[in-house]
Amino acid sequence: MRILIADDDPQILRALRITLTAQRYEIVTATSGAQAIARAIDQRPDLFMLDLGMPELDGIDVIHAVRGWSDAPILVVSGRTGASDKVAALDAGADDYVTKPFSIEELLARIRALTRRIAHEDADPVVTFGDATVDLSARSVTRGAPGQQTHVRLTPTEWKVLELLLRHPGRLVTRQTLLTDIWGSQHVSDTGYLRLYIAQLRKKLEQDPAAPRHLLTEAGMGYRFEPGTAATAGEPA
C-alpha cells in the first residue's frame, strides 16, 4: 500500500519513512501543500498522512483539493490540538486525526484501521442505472430487462472512463483527473478526447443520449455519474 506523507518537518518525515517502510508500506513524501497535491496526482496514494501547518498550501487546502477526485483515506497528523482544528479537518474530508507528539503504536493502529476500511470499500460492486448493469469485477456491461439482457461492448478506453465515473457516484470527476488517469499528464488539455468518449458511452448506455440522465456534464469542470436523476434536456457534452 502506498502512503503519501506531507509534513514540513524533515525529522518527522525521515522517522516516518523508516518506520513505515519497515512495515512494508511504500512511502511518498512531500514538504509543502503544493508538493503534496502534485505528488498525489502523480503517485495516486492509497492513504494520505497530512500535517495541517505546511507552507504554500495548508493541510485543509490539500484535503479540499484531494477530495475533489480521491476517496483515499486521509489521516491528519498535526501539532494543532484545538477542537476547532480537528472539526475543520474532519469537515473538510479527513477520516481521522492524530495529534503530535504521537506514539508509533497508535499511529500504526490508526493506519491499520483505515486500511481495513479500504479493503472493505474496494470490493468490486455491480452498478445498475437505467436499464444498464455494470459488473466492475467481471468488467461486463449489459442492457435490458432481467432475462432479456444483451451484452454491450465497450472499448478499453470507454471502460476506463466509465469505471472512473462509476467509482465516484454523485461526485464531480474533473476533466484533468480523467485525462491524467487515462492518457497521462501530457494530455491534460486534450478535452476533445473526453467529449468523444462520453458521447460514445451515452449512445451505448443512456436511454436518450441527447438528454442524459446518468452520465452528466458539469460545464467547464468535468463529468459526474448520477445513479438516478431527472433528465436535463439538451445537456451539452
| Total tally of structural domains | 2
Query: What is the count of β-strands?
Result: 12
What string, H for helix and E for strand, traces the elements in order?
EHEHEHEHEHEEEEHEHHEE
- Overall pLDDT score: 86
Q: What sort of overall outline do the alpha carbons produce when their principal axes are compared?
A: elongated
N-C termini distance = 36 Å
Largest sheet: 5 strands, parallel
Residue fraction in strands? 15-25%
The DSSP helix count reads 8
Gyration radius, in Å? 20 Å
**What CATH architecture label of the largest domain applies?**
3-Layer(aba) Sandwich
Secondary structure: elements and pairs:
Blueprint: E1 2-6, H1 10-22, E2 26-30, H2 33-43, E3 47-50, H3 59-67, E4 74-78, H4 83-92, E5 96-99, H5 104-121, E6 126-129, E7 132-135, E8 140-143, E9 150-151, H6 156-166, E10 172-174, H7 175-183, H8 191-205, E11 215-218, E12 222-225
Parallel strand pairs: 1-2, 1-3, 3-4, 4-5
Antiparallel strand pairs: 6-7, 7-8, 8-9, 10-12, 11-12
